[in-house]
Amino acid sequence: MIDAEGNQLGIMATAQALDLALDQGLDLVEVQPTAVPPVCRLMDYGREKYEQARRDRESKKKQTVTLLKEVRLAPDIGEADLETKMRNSARFLGEGDKVKFTVRMRGREQAHPELARSMLERIATTLSDVGHAEGQILAEGRSLNLIMAPGPAKAARSSSAT
């Protein structure tokens, strides 16, 4: 048995512990039911639940949610359309979201995957000031994918600092 201040009261009967809790206006809470004998504590359980909820809310405020935005492209996309998609992607990266570029090849376009790969490499170099490539360009079925994360690459940061 532990009191509200954390002092050990020793082993006592359940009825005696409940009487003590009622006298002090507190709750009797079993904190270690598997111990022999079980460990109980005198506390204000409602207040404890409130404090736990408050700690949970505070930790949730500190979390940041990173979204993954997808930008779909075709190997034969027009230059102006590509510039628009890169501008929007730079905005997404600036807001802290990850961007997944997907170049989908259809029909005879599949015979020239190097065009899609060069397009993704060009996008990665163009957007290198606001984001960095997370991994390599991956081929998945008929498409090539590149994921970019916000912030410049760590190697670029260290070289610019010196």
Walkthrough of the structure:
β3 (68-73), α3 (79-94) and β4 (98-104) form a beta-alpha-beta unit. The chain has two domains: 14-60, Ubiquitin-like (UB roll); 68-161, Translation initiation factor 3 (IF-3), C-terminal domain (Translation Initiation Factor IF3), CATH 3.30.110.10. It is of the alpha+beta class and 162 residues long. Mean pLDDT is 86; it is low at 156-162. Helices cover 41% and strands 23% of the residues. The protein starts with 13 loop residues before the first helix and ends with a helix.
Instruction: Sketch the major β-sheet.
Output: 5 strands, mixed
Radius of gyration: 30 Å
By CATH, the superfamily of the largest domain comes out as: Translation initiation factor 3 (IF-3), C-terminal domain
Taken in chain order, the helices and strands follow as HEEHEHEHEEEH
Give the overall shape, derived from the CA principal axes: rod-shaped
Q: What's the CATH architecture of the largest domain?
A: 2-Layer Sandwich
Helix amount = 40-55%
- The total count of strands amounts to 7
Count of helical stretches: 5
Give average pLDDT, whole number. Answer: 86
Q: What is the fold-level CATH name, i.e. the topology of the largest domain?
A: Translation Initiation Factor IF3
Indicate the proportion of strand residues. Answer: 15-25%
| Alpha-beta classification | alpha+beta
Low-confidence spans: 156-162
Distance between the termini: 61 Å
List keywords for this structure.
162 residues, Ubiquitin-like (UB roll), Translation Initiation Factor IF3, 2 domains, five-stranded mixed β-sheet, rod-shaped, disordered C terminus
